[in-house]
Amino acid sequence: MGEAVKQRSLVFAVNGHRYELLNVDDPSITLLEFLRSQTPFKSVKLGCGEGGCGACIVLLSKYDPVLDQVEDSAVSSCLTLLCSVDGCSITTAEGVGNSKDGFHPIQQRFAGFHASQCGFCTPGMCVSLFSALVNADKTNRPEPRPGFSKLTVSEAEKAIAGNLCRCTGYRPIADACKSFAADVDMEDLGLNSFWKKGESDEAKLSRLPSYNHSNASSKFPEFLKKHIKAGASLASQGYHWYSPASLEQLQSLLQENEANDGTSMKIIVGNTGMGYYKEQERYDKYIDLKYILELSIIRKDQTGIEIGAAVTISKAIEAMKEENEGDFHLESKTVFQKIAAHMEKIASGFVRNSGSIGGNLMMAQRKHFPSDIATILLPVGTIMNIVTGRKLEKLTLEEFLGRPPLDSKTILLSIKIPCWGSRRDISSETDTKLLFETYRAAPRPLGNALPYLNAAFLAEVSFCRNSTGVRLNNCQLAFGGYGTRRPIRARKVEEFLTGKLISVGVLYEATKVLGTIVIPEDGTSHPTYRTSLAVGYLFEFLSPLIDTLAEISDGFLNGILLKDSKTEPSCDEFGKNQLPTLLSSGEQVIQLSEEYHPVGKPITKAGAAIQASGEAVYVDDIPSPRNCLHGAFVYSTEPLARVKGIKFKPSSSTVGVTALMTVKDIPGKNVGSKSIFGEEPLYADEIAQCVGDRIAFVVADTQKHADLAANIAVVDYDKENLEPPILSVEEAVDRCSFFELPPSLYPLQFGDFSKGMDAADHQILSAQIKLGSQYYFYMETQTALAVPDEDNCIVVYSSNQFPEFTQDTIAQCLGLPGHNVRVVTRRIGGGFGGKAVKAVSVATACALAAYKLQRPVRIYMNRKTDMIMAGGRHPMKITYSVGFKTNGKITALKLDILMDAGIYSDVSLVIPGMMLGALKKYDWGALSFDVKVCKTNLPSRSAMRAPGDLQGSFIAEAIIEDVASTLSIEVDSVRNVNLHTYNSLDFFYKSSAGEPMEYTLPAIWDKLATSSSFYQRTEMLKEFNRCNKWRKRGISRVPIVHEVSVRATPGKVSILRDGSIVVEVGGIELGQGLWTKVKQMTAYALSLVQCGGTGELSKKVRVIQADTLSLIQGGMTAASTTSESSCEAVRLCCNVLVERLTSLKEKLLEQMKTIEWETLIFQAYLNSVNLSASSYYVPDSSSTHYLNYGVAVSEVEVNLLTGGTTTLRTDILYDCGQSLNPAVDLGQIEGAYVQGMGFFMLEEYPTNTNGLVIANGTWTYKIPTVDTIPKQFNVEILNSGHHKNRVLSSKASGEPPLLLAVSVHCATRAAIKEARRQLLSWSGLDRDVSNSTFQLQVPATMPVVKELCGLDCIQRFLQWTMGRK
Fold this sequence. Notes:
Residues 234-422 form the FAD-binding PCMH-type domain. By secondary structure, this protein is an alpha+beta fold.
């Protein structure tokens, strides 16, 4: 063993800087932890800790001395262990480019294409693209045009497929990426700051930040090339890290470990399994397999491909995709390429670059990981080479998976995928073909999501030359990932099919047998859906072989043309050929105004370039002060229980723990957050009121130690003599548990409901709708840093939308006067309402710990805890009765609304008014309602982007859809007949309606119908649906009327001696472009002084962080209007300054002909002119409330076999008034819309029976990704002219467009309706039988859609086909 344990230091580079560590105290430390705590490079962000978001991506480069080449790959630094990067070079976003050395074209283009909003995800995006560029430009592809890379458009889009963004809606990010692609059509690139629409490609290219692909490669430091990598060992404090260089060394280590019984050991390659299994414990020994040659081989010969167990999934894909394999038969190549194509949908590129084939299969074998790889390798006869001690075994994959979990002595050496070829007998009357296909049903088409089921089928079939039949000679059918311990072969189905001529009857019998085999284990979600997927995929595989079903086939079977295909070419049944290949394209139409220059210009967002380089400082990027401690919450896992005590598990380590803060440590009032409606305690006092209720705060020397200690804290609960918890709105009603809604907040009723119902021709009575919650999924979780200051003061840095109330809360909690507490907020990595009231308690907990311990304390909440405590959007149960005429005109609507507020009031009492505001978008005739705000033992719900408005808009559409279904008329005509006239608008919205000319909705409604070709496409869809049995399309046009209120906001503008300008506002920069608009407004308002040099004033303006002791009464940044009110506050300041400067300027002009800005300011200083002005903008009654209007048309396609919904196209027309910055507003519209798509189509936020959130990470909670947004995404911002009561005639854009996403849900409903009509016809019922009334729940996930389309639709179709014979 002497050679294997030779100890030496760890050497690597970060952005060219050499790092040498003589020992590593904790081998479980990740590269992310090291970079963030031990280097100045903070661009790597912790978004999830699971490899699921891409915020922490770095480029990892390794040198191969044999080939004298560098291998570059993007990896998740949150999963990569520090000790595994020995000899590697790491490049972060700062290393790609920065403000000091110059920004890289990637960063410049991200800024110029408006592809960064909050900016937290942007560095990871940039590194992902950089990695793709570096690797594409190493290929031997043809030289690209000057200014472009060798990347293709498709590769450019997919480069960021695994990166999550909650702000932008992805379209501008995709455009920034595509701008580097060799095959890009410049016309397809969207709005940017480089060129104007209509310019030539040459002009466009000349304005793009230049890119030279020959300089693209990452720079590998020379000093690392001399570094010997293999066989090293690191040791520290009883922990060991081994990097054996041979199989013998590895076996020796394993034997030694067995002898030392009780020593814990972890074998790693990429450590990606940690992302799934969340291993927290430290091991005594770590063994890195990357340097063992036998485990890293890839061998190809005529018998197949052998892949070493330590080979990464990405390298395995590469090996199987290579074209130049003359040894392989064409059919074998097809098998390998299809396996590779499926593997490209596993996890994301940066996980595949680290994760190994062997690691994936060993997790499947030992821990029953739902592995796609195991399933797709099962039917192709994969052989597993394993070694135990000196014994080498060859097992089939099925035998390997079927064994009891292998012990630590057993090593998987390699896998062998054999070559496959069909037999051909020239003398026989048959042609034999080999068919292979893999399948995967998952919420995201490009991966980064576990499947509901995966499958792979291999079959040999014979086409009879003299007859029409196809015989299935043999087949292997594998299914996995559906809630079973391991993938299975469906042997009964295989045996049944073998040797048979494939017919409708045979296929029907096969599906019946399959339904008895693929049965998920108890406790698996959507079990019948998963079984139906198996049936659907078998049908998709075999149905093209049946002549009778030729009309339902596209005529192609895995690339082999079937004889006598009668299919129309436009009818491509299984969706293989017709969907757009690009993930997203679109057109953006904006109208520019010069009236208030530079206001109205689509200038680049302030700080976008430093966000892209990772130099923008967020709270957790602030360097830790000396002696800084870190905190983590201990929260209740019981919904209602007495807390008797807290202790740590006796067998667990509490390394680094300094203190445990509880309610007993509070010197002042037990208050953790507050709103105008009430307070929430910081810590549970005797009784924990809900799951997620804060019980204590662990303080330790590192964030990792604090999190570990919080995880092992054991709370002693007692439920004796306590009432059962209230866990639903129904239980709240039974127990009369409500928050009282003050009369001033109770929305008005409209008209006489009884008269309206009497006037109706038809009625729907007591129909129900249920809506669930939604999590914010800001990329930056809750975070704060509290630093004790002199004279009993404290400074708190908080990621916070509500610094003013945070200051008040901390002061009360600590028993201090407010002036002793300073809360500072610079920027937020995404908020969406979740950083308002919910952030206050996080900052207060840090402040309390820092105050008591007299040491700085910070927290960066882990994603799981954040998701459990967040609360999110308000769930609701709605019961409605509606009366309507035969033409669809609604005469009366009554609603009974039960809203789940959770345990504390938070801002829940304003939600009913907001909900009814959005619901009033239609003329209901008479509107009556009863709203109950239910108090339950669940985490308190809070404001989330468009709180209440989103639910209200959906309720309105659900009712309209129900009316149309009941009447069997087109839903668009029902919407049309119920749109407001100005008189009805004025009746429902009173003073908010404004002047008649401001009511632009009818004009927008008609204009979008024309520009989107709505009516023509509606007719085309009918033809498509007639022609296609297994894909149905739907289209929907939806309006919004969204009421907003403008709140009072402070501002301060100061002009410095050199003419530069510093601005403070109450509003917080969340990514919504508030600072950018404020800069533009400052430049415009000060330019009215009319002297030389004021044309470029925006470059002289800096907006600085919010500071509660510098600018008071900042209020909450929320409700879409803070940007405009901050702009107006600044304009008031500037008006004062202009007035002061104008009188000086006039005096100076008597002495000189012209005067420049700098001269004027210098003279103002000499003349003691006050160059600082503060204001507090308070809107008058005519400006407080106003309405926003927009319309969206969305078209979707539903796959009836899987329930998968693809949004083919969305067109939005939105009235922004006179936009303060069209680029910023466009980003808000697109980003809000995609976030709304998440609510309506993807995001499930389920809990267990106690109310504890179980979707608590990126594995289980799915926000939209670049592959789930509309394929074509067209947005037009309408400049609707002057609104005299608005800020420079502008209108809000942050929240209203979110409501338009309901159009996707409604279009999906339309497609499902077509599927159900078809299903009825197969059951022998008339297509027009009125069974069309159904509820499509939110979110309309794949299982939900499939169930409505018919879980048994395949069987019913086959029965119908047999009956027709």
